[in-house]
Amino acid sequence: MIGYGAMGRSLQASLARSGDRFKIAAALVPAESRSEPPAGGSVRIFHDVSELIAWRPSLVVECAGHAAVRDAVPHVLRAGIDVVIVSIGSLSDAKLLGDLEAAAIAGDSRLIVASGAVGGLDALRAAKRAGLTSVAYLGCKPPAAWQGSAAESLCDLSEITTRTVFFEGTAEEAARRFPKNANVAAAIALAGIGFDRTKVSLAADPAITCNSHNVTAQGAFGEFSITLHNNSLPDNPKTSLLAAMSMEESIVRHFTPLEL
Fold it and tell me: Which of 5, 18, 171, 212 could form a disulfide with 185 if both were Cys (CB 3.0 to 4.6 A apart)?
């Protein structure tokens, strides 16, 4: 695993509950990181990506942010090791996406994008084949979940009393301005009509306790709307529990001979 924050700890605990068929055996974290597994545990710690590559993991899962996708993932792919990424918003950078594709081709490896906190991406990908005319995403979270983001400069999170939309723009703009909160928008853009054509609205609502995601799409196939109300990780209100579960699902599907 690249990174060992709240999502990594959640994944480790979930894998243990499922019977330890799969387990996190190593973590790549910065030398100064405070987010490390407890000393004496079964998780081996690396501080350099070349050391991790030399150790030859079966699969690498990234959950450390955009910088990790840019700085570490291309090296892992080029070494022939498959990677699941969670920081999907990083793929709004067309150059980085091209670099990752080139690295995967050179290493005969695969970059796997976890579905994250949203559903319906399979339907969106299928609808794209026939032609999509519009895709829109509305993300709404409690005010606390937006703390530390650009939302603080767009509205007073401590004072709002009703649902407040503080951002409207494209998925590209959302990924750039809200890198830690826009992975869902990025996943939708990649599955559908791209970062420049996908419309995104972000809102804070003091009346809710969960993270809400709504996707609407129209095209030659017809139209659909899907809404999810996701509980957040106990250790990180910015992240939906479903996003952590999507990492586990990506791991299981990667190693299962039948993809159902």
Answer: 171
